[in-house]
Amino acid sequence: MPSRRELLKLGAVAVASPFAIAKKSPLRIGIVDWNLNLTAKLEAVALAARLGFDGVQVSLGAKPADGKLPLDNAELQAHYLESAKQHNILIDGTCLDILHVNHLKDDKLGPKWVADGIRITRSLKTEVMLLPFFGKGGLQTSEEMNFVGDALRELAPEAEKAGVILGIEDTISAEDNARILDRAQSRAVQVYYDVGEAHLAGFDVIREIRWLGAKRICQFHLKDDPHYLGEGAIDFRTVLHTIQSIGYRGYANLETDIDSKAPEPNLRRNLAYVRKLLEQV
User: Fold this and answer.
1) Is residue 234 part of a domain?
2) Which letter does DSSP use for residue 152 in this model?
3) Does 12 reside within a domain?
4) Which residues touch 17 (CB under 8 Å, ≥6 apart)?
5) How far is CA 195 from the centre of its chain?
6) For residue 98, is it within any domain?
7) Res. 6 pLDDT band, cuts 50 70 90
8) How would residue 144 be classed by pLDDT, with cut points 50, 70 and 90?
9) Whole-prediction pTM value?
């Protein structure tokens, strides 16, 4: 039986570390740099850390110069890595946002940017690169989906070699995404699942996450715009439980609407909400 002194010592430890026995979630929460109003800017790393996020998703830039993406610069990449180390936060992925301009489905520059992005993502010592398919670049027809699947099959060997996952984010169904993955024939091509976009497109988010499973999802975006998380139509308690129940172990990045003049209080509020749910699920 512990002595009074030992009990007092244990009590002191409990007081000093009130969260020591709190449930620790394997899901880590990051933030996209564009919601910090710092798209493709180094300052996003420090701000994400100051707000309490586990990681930051970095844009590679949509305005090339001399045929190079803004982050295709070894010195700048070194500054990103230095800042991440200094602020004790990880770069949890990149976003090839130039695909909003040069669409992979129909622009000859698309594959070039993906190839360049693979190299940059590797240099930033992270694994997931988001490939967006929205607006005019969105996937509408089977022919477009097949074309993208074939293009990714050509690019996948370089991604595999670099240890980079190409995450396709779009507004098509889980089944259509899976067909693209099957056509690409590579573990380096996966789905970047955006909960908010899938919900707006009319899909059953919970069913799709379960159907795709952890082996086909590389990362998540969490949002329910224009609402704060938990105040819209999406049941995030069930979403987070489902994400963890399929065995996913990685990052979910907040991509929530913000007040551009005062983003920090909104981001802190959404982050606090997710943290609280993760303690409960």
Assistant:
1) yes
2) H
3) no
4) none
5) 11
6) yes
7) very low
8) very high
9) 0.90
